[in-house]
Amino acid sequence: MKTICFYFQIHQPFRLKRYRFFNIGRDHYYYDDFSNEDILQQIAGRSYIPANRMLLDLINQYKGRFKVAISISGVALDQLEIYAPEVIDGLRELSKTGGVEFLSETYGHSLSSLIDPVEFRLQVKQHTEKIKLLFGQEPTVLRNTELIYSDDISDLAYKMGYRKMITEGAKHILGWKSPNYVYQSATSTGLKLLLKNSRFSDDIAFRFSNYNWSEYPLTADKFIAWIAATPPEEQIINLFMNYETFGNMQPSHTGIFEFMKALPRFAFEKNIEFATPSEILDNHASVGPISVPNPISWADEERDLSAWLGNKLQQSAFETLYKYGERVRLCEDRKLKQDWLYLQTSDHFYYMSTKHFSDGSIHSQFSPYQSPYDAFNNYMNVLSDFIGRVKAQYPDTVDNEELNSLLTIIHNQEKIIKKLEAELKSVTDANTAKLVKKSEE
Amino acid sequence: MRALMFGWEFPPHILGGLGTASYGLTKGMSLQPDMEILFVIPKPWGDEDQSFLKIIGANNTPIVWKDVPFDIVKERLGKYMNPEEYYRLRDHIYADFNYMYTNDLGCIEFSGRYPNNILEETNNYSIVAGVIARTYPYDVIHAHDWLTYPAGLHAKSISGKPLVIHVHATEFDRSRGNPNPIVYGIEKDGMDNCDHIICVSNLTRKTVIENYHQPEWKVTTVHNAVEPLSPEIEAIERLAGVPEKIVTFLGRITMQKGPEFFVEAATLVLKKTKHIRFVMAGSGDMMNQMIQLVAERGIADKFHFTGFLRGRQVYEMLKSSDVYVMPSVSEPFGISPLEAMQCGVPSIISYQSGCSEILNHVIKTDYWDVEAMADAIYSICTHPGMAEFLKEEGKKEVDEIKWEYAGQKVRDIYNRLVH
Predict the structure, then answer these.
(1) Å between B375 CA and nearest CA of chain A
(2) Cα A376 from Cα A316, distance rounded (Å)
(3) Domain boundaries in chain B?
(4) Which is nearest to B61 in space by CA: B44, B48, B37?
(5) pLDDT tens for residues B110-148?
(6) Is A345 helix (H, G, I), strand (E, B) or coil?
(7) Cβ–Cβ of A354/B390 closer than 8 Å?
(8) How far apart are CA A127 and CA A106, in angstroms?
(9) How far is B255 from chain A (nearest CA, A)?
């Protein structure tokens, strides 16, 4: 029996406003509220809301036989709360059906797993708490930003207590192997992995409405027939894609919603079931380890980090940002901490990519900037202001270690004072009691 | 394929970008094995590089028959051309021009510059073109800029060969939208009656289509390119003796180049930082006005004027710069940012310049958006990662912009016209 595992990603960055260097030190608000609201509401109306409704109908119609997984970044949740809370309501309803599993990821949709393990751990924890609060589920499967994965990251996840993770079935890692099995990490063998089936996922996400594609039009029975025709021992088909596939990347007039509505019926006819990542990882044993020395992701043809950290601009912005991680974590200022999260979002680095100069495609399509250089300029100006604020919190001359111990003293001083006060009180109480006794005598 | 080209300037004696472009294009085209180019200019100096084409001077072409002995011709014209050519040309004088002022060789004098009587000079040039067009065999005629359009048309009327005109600039660019009607008339006449129009950028192409009412199929863009730097120039070291970063404007200080926007951007940057200096290199009719403006803004201690730079000095200036800025208001192409990139200088250019159509690894702003310009200047001077990246990628990019490719595109147009 074959099983299809759907996972949808919801993510929206806080896009930065035009921030000139004259603003540095004067203006501490960095976000383009107008375009963030505009984009979010458009996408919610076109994609998230109708897709939520569709999933709800399907789950109800098939009474629990149809299941999916969803991962939402914390920054997307923050924005949805402000601009389109009805999307969150829809997701809540989905969660109540029991047919939707929420995955955990970094709160800021950040690349922290590559450089700052402490930050990574904190953000995943923060995200888990947010999911618990909103949807009443405790995620058990980890989805790192952009499906970025490597042996080091698997160790990190394992130490954090995760036993299940999903990532890309990158060809250069798999070689002759098929993504349609459960694998395990080569270094932390207790961590099981689900790999994306790129061919089938991209058939829906990218090729569905492409007239030039030899298989156009893609129908649900044709698609299910392909899946059914895979070798019988390959039992898991992982279809991982952006939630915006429905209605935004594939507009509704292409018939994407109808395709999706018809899919379960044809699947059940061919005896193909649906399951969530955690169910599959619980029920299937690993067929072997996968070794990934260099990080992979689900982006571009290369399936590596080059979309975010491919050029010097991106690397220098990235390194500058994370130099301040430890210091920011010592700060208490809530606004500062929030900005810290929002500035880590991977999209800021994506906009600085110069790859599209050669392949002319997908990068520029998503960027609010006219060129990668504009993106870098703007981000660095914002970052300079942010760094100024971080430095203003504590004097620059104190290093992090010293600062930490000082802060511990300050933090503990109240406790100590209370303890001493209590002691003092008991002594004075005892003395007064003695005095009273004496005077009575 | 034999081309008869009419130009106005040719290195090393050049006054503007036209000469540089003529040289690069013909040199690039000469790499095609079957390409022969005969290049006519008003006044050769004798030190032009004739290794890849043949240059004929309009001022050495007789239009009035004079009986001159060989020795005299050899003495007078030897350094420009083979004396035999004089007699060959003399055999093709086609009308009686005795009423014109000519010298003892029967030739008209040309200044080879842009004098006040430029219209007369272009007319004379066209008369001379008649002789040249009758003397030599050719398959196609190619005229560079309006000064040579009448000559091109004249040659076409004689031989019936196809005429290609090459628009390096239009009167609309030079006058900021207030064209001289006579010049406009010459340009329009050339465009209406030629067989194909080549523009140096899509920006210029748009002007030609919209303001000169040309059909789109007749107009093709062939972007300019840049000659590789010579080893002597590559070897020039940074001269600057100040620790600050240097931001340079280099070009004629005229309205078209937008120098005032550079000053305003400098003002904004200097308000905020101390580690940057500005240099305005070149001369022009707005120079005094700019000095005035710099003084008014109170930034004269960090803003310097060099005056006109020539030859090697240009490259010394570029090599000493950390940022090159070209805020042109209307620039048909603009080769100088390409030269800056060759020297490894990160460049900021305006969207209103034609070269922005083919450059990726530069920062582009609108010429009027001084805030964006200031921001970009600050960014390059502040983030070493950015400067380094632009420097390397920019050089890589510009090294791939070759005249050879531009020459091939021109050749493709010739091939379509010559059956």
Answers:
(1) 6
(2) 10
(3) 2-225+403-417, 231-399
(4) B44
(5) 988 888 888 999 999 999 999 999 999 999 999 999 999
(6) strand
(7) no
(8) 6
(9) 27
Q: Which two tokens stand for residue B269?
A: 């940057």
Answer whether A204's CB lies under 8 Å from A241's CB. Answer: yes
The CATH class given to the B2-225+403-417 domain equals alpha beta
Query: What average pLDDT is seen over chain B?
Result: 92
Alpha carbons B273 and B267: distance in angstroms, whole number: 10
Which residue is closest to A314 within chain B, CA to CA? B385
Q: Assess contact for A142 and A157: CB atoms under 8 A.
A: yes
Mean pLDDT for A377-381 is: 92
Q: How far is the C-alpha of A230 from the C-alpha of A408, rounded, in Å?
A: 59
Pick the CATH number of B231-399 from 3.40.50.2000, 3.40.50.10490, 1.10.150.120, 2.30.40.10: 3.40.50.2000
Interface test with A, best of B363, B379, B388, B391 (most A CBs within 10 A): B379
Contact A22 B374 (CB under 8 A): yes
Is the predicted ipTM greater than 0.85, yes or no?
Answer: no
Question: What are the tokens at B260?
Answer: 């005032």
Residue whose structure tokens are 């110069």:
A354
Active-site amino acid positions of A: 146
CB B402 within 8 A of CB B225: yes
Strands A192-196 and A182-185: antiparallel
Chain A hits for B361, CB-CB cut-off 8 Å, are 354, 357
Say if A20 is an interface residue toward chain B (CB within 8 Å).
Answer: yes
Output the CA torsion sign for A341, A345, A348, A352.
positive
Calpha distance B30→B35 (Å, rounded)? 6
Q: What is the pLDDT of residue A21?
A: 85
Q: How far is B345 from chain A (nearest CA, A)?
A: 15
Alpha-carbon gap, residue A147 to A300, rounded angstroms? 12
| Side chain identity at residue B251, one-letter code | G
Count of positions (residues) in chain B? 419
A335 touches chain B (CB under 8 A): no
Task: Compute the distance between CA of residue A342 and CA of residue A337 in angstroms, rounded to an integer.
Answer: 9
Q: Give the three-state DSSP class for A144.
A: coil
Q: Which of B364, B375, B385 sits opposite A312 (nearest CB)?
A: B385
Architecture of domain A2-290: Alpha-Beta Barrel (3.20)
Residues 216-255 of A with CB under 8 A from B: none
* DSSP SS3 for A108: coil
pLDDT of A364 higher than 60: no
- Closest by CA to A276, choosing from A1, A64, A115, A422, is A64
Place A224 in a pLDDT band, splitting at 50, 70 and 90. very high
> What Å distances lie between residue B365 and A325, A380, A384, B201, B356, CA to CA?
33, 18, 22, 18, 10
The Cα-based distances of A294 to A304, B155, B172 in angstroms read 8, 67, 56
The answer to whether A22 contacts B272, with C-beta atoms less than 8 Å apart, is yes
Residue B6's pLDDT band (boundaries 50, 70, 90)? very high
Which H or E run includes A77?
A: helix A74-83
Partner-chain contact B379 A317, CB within 8 Å = no
